[in-house]
Design goal:
mainly alpha
Length: 253
């Protein structure tokens, strides 16, 4: 029994240290296939993202707001109320500026590192940086004017929404890192609330927020493909370590 227990402990230690360098060894076959096919998956995702973003922007009628944008904004202005303004301003502060772009991502990455998921933490940080950078590039390229009736001060460029892109990137990355139903629902809800708050404040047209959503989620998916096996294997190793700790506690009691 002692020898078996020792073997189990040694096996767990070897699994842990071996997995730290090559977590893909613990990944399931499906994740390995995704990693092997990453050029196709990443390429198709990038092309689809570019096509959708281009469609949203190109049909702007020479820079003017689309009919759906103006109709949505008219409804928003008509139903503005202090009840909705306070949570919208809260979402404005939560999803933008240094707090939304720097503090929140670093805090999440730190938590992920503390639970021994370094690949996941790195993936999240890179996705966040590329999403924020992509937003600024598109803002400069398209130079779309913001709505006139804004309740907040914003920088240049309306398309796409940086707040929504940040929210979509965070939601998609966290669902990939922690594939649980409640994580997906919470992330989707957060992104939708952010979308609504940006149009409520008049900081963006509706199509700006849709563009931000596509950009943020698309970047998260494109980056996920080449390291899918590493992320899945790292998650599997974390689950095994947790089960091993639970068994040790049960054995001691």
């Amino acid at each position: 029994m002692v020898g078996a227990a020792r073997c189990g402990v040694d096996g767990g230690v070897l699994l842990y240290y071996g997995g730290m360098s090559k977590p893909e060894r613990a990944a399931d076959p499906a994740s390995r296939r995704i990693s092997r096919r990453w050029p196709v998956i990443s390429g198709l995702s990038a092309v689809a993202l570019a096509a959708l973003l281009g469609l949203v922007v190109v049909v702007r009628a020479n820079g003017l707001a689309l009919e759906v944008d103006t109709e949505w904004m008219d409804e928003i202005i008509e139903h503005r109320s202090p009840i909705w303004e306070v949570p919208s301003l809260f979402m404005n502060a939560l999803g933008g500026g240094l707090f939304g772009v720097l503090v929140v991502p670093l805090a999440i990455a730190l938590i992920v590192v503390l639970i021994k998921r370094p690949w996941a933490a790195g993936y999240y940080i890179v996705a966040t940086v590329l999403s924020a950078g992509g937003v600024q590039v598109l803002k400069q390229v398209f130079g779309r004017a913001r709505p006139e009736d804004m309740l907040v001060t914003s920088d240049f460029g309306s398309f796409p929404s940086g707040h929504v892109a940040n929210a979509a990137t965070m939601a998609a990355c966290l669902f990939i890192i922690f594939p649980r139903l409640w994580v997906g629902i919470a992330g989707a809800a957060y992104t939708i609330v952010m979308l609504l708050s940006r149009t409520y404040l008049g900081a963006h047209w509706l199509t700006d927020t849709i563009g931000g959503l596509l950009l943020g989620a698309g970047i998260a998916i494109v980056l996920w493909a080449p390291i899918a096996a590493k992320l899945d294997g790292e998650r599997e190793l974390a689950d095994r370590r947790r089960l091993e700790r639970q068994r040790h506690k049960a054995a001691r009691s």
